[in-house]
Amino acid sequence: MTLTTSKITNSEVFDRVESQVRSYSRSFPKTFGKAQGATIFDKSGKAYTDFLAGCSTLNYGHNDPDLKAALIDYISADGITHGLDMFTEAKENFLETFERLILKPRGMDYKLQFTGPTGANAVEAAMKLARKVTGRNSIIAFTNGFHGVTLGALAATGNSGHRQGANTPLSGVTRAAYDGYFGADIDTADMLDQQLSDPSSGFDAPAAFIVETVQGEGGLNAASAEWLLKIRAIARRHGALFIVDDIQAGCGRTGSFFSFEGMGLDPDIITMAKSLSGMGLPFALTLMKPRLDIWKPAEHNGTFRGNNHAFVTAAAAIQKFWSDGKFEAELAEKSTYLGERLDAIAEAHDLGRRGRGMMQGINAGTGAVAEAICRSCFRSGLIIETSGAHGEIVKILSPLTIDKQQFAAGLDIVENAFEEVLGTQRAAAE
Ligand code: PLP
């Protein structure tokens, strides 16, 4: 994610009228009009392959024909667009679909809270609820974690570029080291356990731990199942709830619907947003174990907690992609292919691969190099972004539905860009 403020657009109205807080448009200074699948078209009709996918909001691609048809049918039949949090047929269908195809087959028992439609709002609800349930204040969040930019969530976010925008104390969060933060030889889970067990460590008893299984914005650091299980056990031992923020890593991005499947993790609270609606419509959820649902009516409120269009497309997406194991099998195959392609690039330039599933990338060494690689990709018709503390990771987040040919062609562009940028650097050094 770039946070620079260079002035590069091809349409003056953006510079003239829109706040300079905008960011992605600086990396991709074109005006886009249409999109289909993994392809997005600028105003002149030039096609780009999308390896950003709305930062994992378009896991099923742009304008999936079945999701689009479900939404058009619903709108054409005058289905309710806005209903606050009233019962609607669209919500009923979504809840039944989510229960039947997501929760039940995985043996998961959760209540669903519809929060305001952004990821940050789901995180705010999760943090508030943990504090309400435990009567404690401190939330343990991890180095390089990203949880959103509203004040509560921002306190849990590590990145100083985002934090400095608050201009007010960001409180109520204690920072702990993520898996591998101090290198392979230091077990950060043991460290945290020791700090929480020592009455003189200065750590307040925590209400919750909040963790991403793969840190999307923080550099594609993937925690091991072993570390996550240990962290989960430590949370439990110290009376804290365990929150998995699955906003970026969920909805199939790591290969399964939830990013922690198969690990035996059993979070107390799960946050979801981004690809949940399946079509890029704003929609967020906080899932909680039923015993934690102690909210009073309207205690965490919001006008847009019932995006009925999103209920329709989310239910259609779950029905289409998650009613059998076919999509997951495809993801496993694509993830292996992605890993192999990235290993080859990393090996050629003596670099490291990061992440897992369809959420992988390469540490290009510095932010400047990663940015140059992404710029080169864009010139070649590929939209791709950086991640990490210094923006040093070139991050591949293609739609999960991308066909193999387009995926391969996009990865060819990435490979050539690494060669162009790092090969030039090597030649200059010789
Ligand atoms: N949590 C994670 C893991 C995220 O990746 C993000 C956004 O990138 C958020 C929370 C915040 O979501 P939103 O930008 O919709 O507020």
TrEMBL record:
Q: Which PROSITE patterns match?
A: AA_TRANSFER_CLASS_3 (PS00600)
Q: Which UniProt keywords apply?
A: Aminotransferase, Pyridoxal phosphate, Transferase
Name the InterPro entries on file. Aminotrans_3, Aminotrans_3_PPA_site, Dat, Ectoine_EctB, PyrdxlP-dep_Trfase, PyrdxlP-dep_Trfase_major, PyrdxlP-dep_Trfase_small
Entries under SUPFAM superfamilies matching the protein? PLP-dependent transferases
E.C. numbers: 2.6.1.76
> Which Gene3D superfamilies does the annotation name?
Aspartate Aminotransferase, domain 1, Type I PLP-dependent aspartate aminotransferase-like (Major domain)
Please verify whether the record's keywords include RNA-binding: no
Judging by the UniProt lineage, the source's domain of life is Bacteria
Instruction: Give the residue range of the signal peptide.
Output: none
Q: Which family does it belong to?
A: Belongs to the class-III pyridoxal-phosphate-dependent aminotransferase family.
The name under which this protein is listed is Diaminobutyrate--2-oxoglutarate transaminase
The species this protein was found in = Devosia rhodophyticola
